[in-house]
Write a structure and sequence with these properties.
By secondary structure, the protein is of the alpha/beta class. Helices cover 28% and strands 28% of the residues. It contains six helices and ten strands. The strands form two sheets. Strands 6-7-8-3-9-10 form a six-stranded mixed β-sheet, with helices on both faces. Strands 2-1-4-5 form a four-stranded antiparallel β-sheet, covered by helices on one side. The longest helix is centred in the C-terminal third of the chain and has 16 residues.
Length: 217
């Protein structure tokens, strides 16, 4: 299993965010995308997901461009963006039911409730999402990670608005996924132990945009 990026270029307006970006990411690997605000981190993640179009270059999954295998690729991808993608008038449970169904998965109510409890939402499962804090809303979105079979996780600022318990829990979930042959690409402004170990990094502030291995542990 591999994600291959060849000479990727993205331009927004008159600004080139990055160009000549190439890397290969395989199972059991975690990559962090770094850079100042406005350098294109979110644009890069959305391009890797196929949600935004590159101006040049290509993204391949299992040696085929993601454009040629849209359904297969999306079934093996879990994407979490800046927004939690939950509806305020639905409960945490109902949002998780809808999100998993849209991903083509079917779970019992008991399984969904267990995922919400594991992510720290016990007692809030039936509350309207409008009544939840920002951190709780983020947990609703993250609960999907506990249920998905997707091999590739692309996470944009997954730790935002989370308290210490949830940050630790999420780190454990991500580390376990990588250990079990998964692949993760993420951005984060928070320095956490997960991103201070031996991981691959790409810094979009740098002109060469080459992946480096971080050995900060």
């Amino acid at each position: 299993m591999s994600l291959v990026v060849n000479n990727l270029q993205c331009i927004r307006g008159e600004k080139e965010l990055f160009s000549g970006l190439s890397f290969v990411l395989t199972n059991k690997q975690l990559m962090r995308i770094e850079g100042q605000n406005g350098t294109g981190k979110t644009t890069l993640l959305r391009t890797l997901c196929g949600l935004s179009q590159a101006d040049d270059g290509e993204v391949l999954w299992h040696n085929l461009t993601i454009k040629k295998q849209d359904e297969v690729f999306r079934n093996e991808l879990f994407y979490l963006g800046h927004h939690n993608a939950i509806k305020a008038d639905l409960s945490a449970l109902e949002n998780l039911q809808i999100n998993t169904a849209l991903a083509g998965a079917s779970y019992s109510e008991e399984q969904l409730l267990q995922a919400l409890e594991d992510i720290g939402l016990f007692g809030s499962e039936y509350k309207s999402s409008a009544q939840l804090s920002q951190g709780q809303k983020r947990r609703v979105a993250l609960a999907g990670l506990l249920l998905t079979n997707a091999k590739l996780w692309i996470l944009d600022e997954p730790f935002v608005a989370l308290d210490g318990f949830a940050v630790k829990k999420l780190q454990d979930v991500i580390a376990s996924h990588v250990e079990n042959d998964g692949t993760v690409i993420l951005t984060t402004h928070q320095e956490v132990p997960l991103t201070q170990g031996k991981i691959l990094t790409i810094n979009l502030d740098q002109s060469n945009n080459k992946p480096n291995r971080s050995d900060n542990d």
